[in-house]
Amino acid sequence: MRGPRLLVPLALAALTLVAAGCSSTESRAEAASPAATHTAKKTCKYRAGWQKLANRIDAPVYCPTWLPDPLVPQLDGRWNNIYAVDPDRSYLVSFVWQETGPGAAGGELHVNLRGYPGRTAIPLCTRGGGDKQKIPCFSDARGTISANGIRATMFTVNQDADQWHVLLAWRHEGSLYTLSEHVAPPLTYRKVLAYLKRELRSLVLVEPSRA
Question: How far apart are CA 203 and CA 137, in angstroms?
């Protein structure tokens, strides 16, 4: 595993300015027209897979009802490249699209969702380069974004599968959840933030079935 990578200072400064206004702007919009955020009921189109995950870990999971085209939030589907559940019931679900090869413009869309049932602390990762020092998997907090009843903290220096991602983390009923997106062409920081806000608004909570 490689160590943390620092964002380019000028880009990070711009990101900070955008983040500073995220929570207040979102909150003002919802306060001004609270009904507007609930006019259309969100539906988890691929609920069966997410329900199976919730039942497997015996904890709620968040199903995204929107991802950037061409990604679709179908577990075990074409764009789902990682679907991993650890013995402690924490999970990582990843969706990715890549365009490479001769004549291709090049680009990547990469979205991760994680859950840590029964844990609210930020997990630790091992620093790369032969250094076994434990460091937070998510760091460099840059304010909060509120939407869909969720108040998420934004982190810009992240590890493992979330490296080079902007990550949102929040807590629900004693568990930690995250949503992250890779900052890479064709996306800019500003576009990633816009996508993350839309994805956050799209989340549907799927409870485990006790039947």
Answer: 23
